[in-house]
Amino acid sequence: MSRAEEFEELRPLLFSIAYRILGSVGEAEDAVQETWLRYEASPTRPASVKAFLSAVVTRIAIDVLRSARVRREEYAGLWFPEPLLTDPYEDPERSAELADSVSMAALLLLERLSPLERAVFVLREVFGFGFGDVASAVGRSEAACRQLAVRARRHMDAGRARFEADRREREELAGRFFDAFREGDVAGLRELLAADAQMVGDSGGKAPLWGKGVFGAENVARTLVAMLAPFAAIGGVVQSHEVNGQPGAIFRDQDGKVVNTWTLDILDGRIQMIRAVINPDKLGHLGPVADAWAVVREAKQARRSTSPRTSD
């Protein structure tokens, strides 16, 4: 097998490692490409191509993450990972770990870890690498990596939801939610939302956003209904779609361009959180991106034209 064939076989794994460390599709793809360039230029063939390439992509991702941390501290508003529609790497023996680790909630928990802790957690807990390979990848001793893994696991466990719905229950609840959303059913939405439900978004200051968020089942339900009718009136479409392994949706304008994505956090039979990614810089990998400001202007005009006139 040629180097190029070996690399392409491992590309899904390398991307999945890099994405979990970085939370960015574009940066993960760049890290994978840089890994190929280094492998292609290497004068020797490693004993384990998988271990070698995983180590290279991990080191690159750690370096990128360290510089990205500074930018994220200066980020306008909430920072969310770039939405991922499909994880290219599959491993039946680790399907639960892989699915859990790519959710928005898990990726945001990973943001609390240091770059080294994050890399060790991803390699060890998510992908099941032995501590020898983990140590080689991050340039630390096995003993140090064991300590990093313990700290990372403690941080992750402390932030996780105590009870999580199984996949079938989440999908069924999400289906009912989007049916009620499309029908403009405030009562139906309110029934599916947790009492302290939140709707929050990441616009990066580059797209319209509903303040710092919408809080409480009643407010969220009414906001959802108020936003859909004018969006639908201008040809907007809400396409239910799994996003980061969770029930979610892609919003598209009348030309099919991406406006934003949603993910739903579901716990105890209720929707706890709706996370929207609206920053156009984070949506380009999904296809052509809409001008969200123009969409909102058109929607407001549609709302005014369809609102009943009242008199004093």
Structural features, described:
Belongs to the sigma-70 factor family. ECF subfamily. It comes from Nonomuraea guangzhouensis. Residues 7-69 form the RNA polymerase sigma-70 region domain. With 312 residues, the protein is α+β, with helices and mostly antiparallel strands. It has helices at 3-22, 25-41, 49-73, 95-101, 104-110, 115-126, 131-138, 142-159, 167-183, 186-192, 217-233, 292-306, and strands spanning 193-202, 214-215, 237-240, 248-252, 258-267, 270-277. The protein has 2 domains: 3-159, Butyryl-CoA Dehydrogenase, subunit A, domain 3 (Up-down Bundle), CATH 1.20.140; 167-306, Roll (Nuclear Transport Factor 2, Chain: A). Helices cover 54% and strands 12% of the residues. The chain has a 6-stranded mixed sheet with strand order 2-1-6-5-4-3. Helix 6 runs antiparallel to helix 7 (131-138) and helix 9 (167-183) runs antiparallel to helix 10.
